[in-house]
Amino acid sequence: MLAFCLFFFIAEISRSWRCPAPPGAMNLLNWSCQGLGNLWTIEALWCLVCNEDPKIVFLCETRCSKSVMESVCLKLGFRQCIVVESNDASGGLCLMWIDELAVSLRYASNNHIDTEVEVLGVQRRWRFTGFYGCPDTVECYHSWDLLIRLGATNLLPWLCCGDFSKILTAE
Ligand SMILES: *[C@@H]1O[C@H](CO)[C@@H](O)[C@H](O)[C@H]1NC(C)=O
């Protein structure tokens, strides 16, 4: 009985240690998919979405046309998305989100999608930027400029994620 009580007591303590998530907390998936034009990658993405249940998905290096990307979004169960088409065999961005969010586009380019996010019913806005560092390392200072400019125009809580590896490794 004592052992049972002790167990119960410890279980209660460890339960109360876990902080509850704040209202509007969510999973977000960020992936540089290196081309979504093949079944293997789409299937891998589908598995990630099924297992992690992200409310927002940001993809870079999609290397897809707008129409292909939109049909991928629908297949994954997202009815809303912003697509930046890839201009040649590289690049391409996509942001998709669930219906319970209101996402408004501030600005998008080949290197970023900048948005404001609101969980419907929760009075709290925050900013999400999906970033894709310029693959041409010679021009990577443009990417740094872009980041600085984005940061300078910010008043909301801000999450900026994406592919920074190219601009971090450039000399
Ligand atoms: C997002 O994904 C990119 C590319 O897969 C990765 O480089 C980056 O570290 C990830 N995380 C964040 C927080 O940006």
How do you describe this structure in short?
The chain has 171 residues and is an alpha/beta fold.
What does this protein look like?
There is one protein chain. With 171 residues, the protein is of the alpha/beta class. The chain has a single domain, classed as 4-Layer Sandwich (Deoxyribonuclease I, Chain A). The protein is 35% helix and 30% strand. It has helices spanning 2-17, 39-52, 66-76, 140-152, 165-169; strands at 28-32, 56-60, 80-84, 93-97, 101-109, 112-119, 125-132, 158-163. The chain has a 4-stranded mixed sheet, covered by helices on one side. A 4-stranded mixed sheet has the order 5-6-7-8, with no helix packed on it. Mean pLDDT is 85; it is low at 4-11. Residues 30-32, 161-163, 165 line the site of 2-acetamido-2-deoxy-beta-D-glucopyranose.
List the secondary-structure elements in sequence, H or E.
HEHEHEEEEEHEH
User: What are the bound molecules?
Assistant: 2-acetamido-2-deoxy-beta-D-glucopyranose
Helical amount = 25-40%
- SSE class: alpha/beta
CATH topology: Deoxyribonuclease I, Chain A
- Average pLDDT reading: 85
Number of domains: 1
Number of strands: 8
Rounded to an integer, what's the Rg over CA atoms? 20 Å
**What is the second-level CATH architecture?**
4-Layer Sandwich
What do we call the CATH homologous superfamily?
Endonuclease/exonuclease/phosphatase
Helices and strands in order:
Layout: H1 2-17, E1 28-32, H2 39-52, E2 56-60, H3 66-76, E3 80-84, E4 93-97, E5 101-109, E6 112-119, E7 125-132, H4 140-152, E8 158-163, H5 165-169
Parallel strand pairs: 1-2, 7-8
Antiparallel strand pairs: 2-4, 3-4, 5-6, 6-7
This protein binds 2-acetamido-2-deoxy-beta-D-glucopyranose (NAG).
